[in-house]
Design goal:
Elements lengths: L1 E9 L7 E3 L6 E3 L7 E12 L17 E13 L2 E10 L10 E10 L2
Antiparallel strand pairs: 1-4, 2-3, 4-5, 5-6, 6-7
Length: 112
Protein backbone atom coordinates (compact mmCIF):
# COMPACT_ATOMS: atom_id res chain seq x y z
CA UNK A 1 0.00 0.00 0.00
CA UNK A 2 1.46 3.40 -1.03
CA UNK A 3 0.32 7.02 -0.58
CA UNK A 4 1.97 10.18 -1.81
CA UNK A 5 1.80 13.36 -3.85
CA UNK A 6 3.42 15.15 -6.77
CA UNK A 7 3.21 18.87 -7.56
CA UNK A 8 4.06 20.25 -11.00
CA UNK A 9 5.05 23.92 -11.22
CA UNK A 10 5.15 25.04 -14.87
CA UNK A 11 3.65 24.21 -18.24
CA UNK A 12 5.46 21.10 -19.49
CA UNK A 13 3.48 17.94 -18.76
CA UNK A 14 0.21 19.64 -17.80
CA UNK A 15 -1.78 18.28 -20.77
CA UNK A 16 0.11 15.04 -21.24
CA UNK A 17 -0.07 11.48 -19.99
CA UNK A 18 2.42 11.18 -17.12
CA UNK A 19 3.83 7.80 -16.10
CA UNK A 20 5.66 6.86 -12.90
CA UNK A 21 9.05 5.17 -12.79
CA UNK A 22 8.66 2.14 -10.52
CA UNK A 23 12.03 2.46 -8.75
CA UNK A 24 12.58 6.21 -8.35
CA UNK A 25 8.95 7.36 -8.28
CA UNK A 26 9.74 10.11 -10.82
CA UNK A 27 7.01 11.20 -13.22
CA UNK A 28 7.93 11.12 -16.90
CA UNK A 29 6.03 12.08 -20.02
CA UNK A 30 4.31 9.27 -21.93
CA UNK A 31 2.92 11.63 -24.59
CA UNK A 32 4.17 14.98 -25.92
CA UNK A 33 2.37 18.15 -26.94
CA UNK A 34 5.62 19.91 -28.05
CA UNK A 35 4.65 23.19 -26.36
CA UNK A 36 7.83 25.01 -25.30
CA UNK A 37 8.41 25.60 -21.62
CA UNK A 38 9.70 24.24 -18.35
CA UNK A 39 8.31 22.52 -15.27
CA UNK A 40 9.66 21.76 -11.83
CA UNK A 41 8.29 18.67 -10.05
CA UNK A 42 8.30 17.91 -6.31
CA UNK A 43 6.91 14.72 -4.80
CA UNK A 44 7.10 12.18 -2.01
CA UNK A 45 5.44 8.95 -0.97
CA UNK A 46 5.47 6.31 1.73
CA UNK A 47 4.69 2.61 1.37
CA UNK A 48 3.67 0.08 4.01
CA UNK A 49 5.75 -3.06 3.53
CA UNK A 50 4.18 -6.45 4.21
CA UNK A 51 6.65 -8.67 2.35
CA UNK A 52 9.07 -8.57 -0.57
CA UNK A 53 9.83 -11.13 -3.27
CA UNK A 54 13.11 -9.28 -3.94
CA UNK A 55 14.29 -9.18 -0.30
CA UNK A 56 13.03 -12.43 1.26
CA UNK A 57 13.30 -12.75 5.03
CA UNK A 58 14.73 -16.26 4.51
CA UNK A 59 17.94 -14.50 3.38
CA UNK A 60 18.29 -12.97 6.85
CA UNK A 61 17.07 -9.49 5.95
CA UNK A 62 14.63 -7.74 8.29
CA UNK A 63 12.46 -5.43 6.19
CA UNK A 64 11.61 -1.92 7.36
CA UNK A 65 7.92 -1.37 8.15
CA UNK A 66 7.71 1.63 5.81
CA UNK A 67 9.63 2.76 2.73
CA UNK A 68 9.89 6.43 1.87
CA UNK A 69 10.80 8.25 -1.33
CA UNK A 70 11.26 11.97 -2.00
CA UNK A 71 11.93 13.43 -5.42
CA UNK A 72 12.53 16.62 -7.38
CA UNK A 73 12.88 17.04 -11.11
CA UNK A 74 13.05 19.50 -13.99
CA UNK A 75 11.38 19.19 -17.44
CA UNK A 76 12.47 21.35 -20.40
CA UNK A 77 10.85 21.37 -23.86
CA UNK A 78 11.74 23.51 -26.90
CA UNK A 79 10.46 22.49 -30.33
CA UNK A 80 11.47 18.91 -31.14
CA UNK A 81 13.91 18.61 -28.23
CA UNK A 82 13.35 18.08 -24.54
CA UNK A 83 14.87 16.58 -21.44
CA UNK A 84 14.11 15.64 -17.88
CA UNK A 85 16.53 15.40 -14.97
CA UNK A 86 15.54 14.38 -11.47
CA UNK A 87 16.94 13.29 -8.13
CA UNK A 88 15.22 10.79 -5.83
CA UNK A 89 15.95 9.86 -2.24
CA UNK A 90 15.05 6.23 -1.54
CA UNK A 91 14.73 5.42 2.16
CA UNK A 92 16.12 2.26 3.75
CA UNK A 93 14.49 -0.99 2.59
CA UNK A 94 15.83 -3.28 5.31
CA UNK A 95 17.08 -2.71 8.85
CA UNK A 96 20.74 -3.58 8.27
CA UNK A 97 20.99 -1.11 5.38
CA UNK A 98 23.21 1.70 6.70
CA UNK A 99 21.40 4.56 4.95
CA UNK A 100 19.04 5.46 2.12
CA UNK A 101 20.12 6.06 -1.48
CA UNK A 102 20.22 9.13 -3.71
CA UNK A 103 19.65 8.27 -7.39
CA UNK A 104 19.48 10.41 -10.51
CA UNK A 105 17.18 10.09 -13.53
CA UNK A 106 17.83 11.45 -17.01
CA UNK A 107 15.56 11.30 -20.05
CA UNK A 108 16.45 12.90 -23.38
CA UNK A 109 14.04 13.42 -26.28
CA UNK A 110 14.84 14.55 -29.80
CA UNK A 111 12.27 14.07 -32.56
CA UNK A 112 13.66 13.99 -36.10
Amino acid sequence: MRAGFDYIFGTVGRNELLLRDVSSGQLYRGTRDYEPGTSFVLGADVAKVFSSIYLPEEDGLELTDFRTRARAGFHWQQGNAGFFYGLSYLGKEFESQSEGQLVGSLRLHWAF
